Structures are given as C-alpha cells and as structure tokens.
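Morning. Coffee machine broken again, so started the prediction first thing and wrote up yesterday's gels while waiting. Chain of 184 residues, entered below exactly as on the submission form.
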Amino acid sequence: MSHPNILDSSYAMLVVIDVQDSLLKAIHQADRVIANTVKLIEAAKVFDIPVLVTVQYPEKLGGCTELVATALKDVQVFPKTAFSCLGCKEFAQHIAATGRRQVILCGIEAHVCVNQTAHDLLLRGLRVHVARDAVSSRTAENYEVGIGKMRDSGCVITSTETAIFEMTGDASRAEFKRILPIVK
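Came back before lunch.
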C-alpha cells in the first residue's frame, strides 16, 4: 500500500450517496455531480472495486437518477432515512465486510449526508477521500461548508480524475487503456 492519502485500487471502495432526481433538481452544479459519479462508477468496474449505493427515503424521494442507475446495473442499493449512511445497519455491515480501508465518497449533499457519512467512516478508522467535483449541495455556500468540515476532520479532498489516476498508479497497467476513455 502506498501513502494513505493516495488511493490504491486494492484497498479502495466507492460510496455513492443519494444521487436522486428529486434531490438533484435543487443541487448546485448537479450535472457535474452526475457526470463525475458515473466516471467513478465506471472506474470502479475497471478495478473491480466494491460500490455501495444509498438512496434517501426512497418511498418519497425515489431511486437513483437514470444515468447513475444505468451505470450501476446490478449493484445493491441501500435505502436509508438517517443522514449518515452508517445509520443504515445493512450498509454499515457491508462496509465492514469489504475489508477495504479506503473509501471514495461522491453524491449529495456535501454538508449533510456526505459530511455525516464521512465523519462516521473516520470514526471507524477508515481513510476517507471525498471527490470534490462529484459532490455538491443546494447552495455553493453549503457545499463549501461541507468540504471544509470534512477536510478539517481529516478527509482527503480529491477530484474524480485524481482518484482514478491514483488507483491506476502506472500507465503500464492493463487497466490504463480502459481508464483513458472514462477520463476523457
């Protein structure tokens, strides 16, 4: 394993938080969040990284937005009502069962569900990487508050492309050619 602030595909997992149409309608730069979330999902497939997905109160707010749902295909989705994903017992069990020590977070909202999930993951001793360009909030101010709180608490603030290239590690890897169309 390399430095803990550098993602390693052998130790990483991806968590996609509440990327739902009913929430996205009000999200600052929602298209950016969707596009980068899909890139992270596609990269996770290349590296065979576990992907865990949540939806907030699906009975009222619905499921994942279509582009994300299509990229996910057969991935289990965990319904929740707690803001932290770890408030869902089954989700928490799945996180532990992966045995992975690094978590890449994407989704919404940066200052609510992403923030509270990040802090709960840190409490469990996991290294949390937040893809800054794959999270947002309803307002730019709340987005910045969420990013700041997570950084101040010890999360690694990264970008989608940085995360993907860190997991690639070396252009000689077989996966490199499969990664290029994702980042372009």
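The chain has a mean pLDDT of 96. Going to sketch it on the whiteboard this afternoon.
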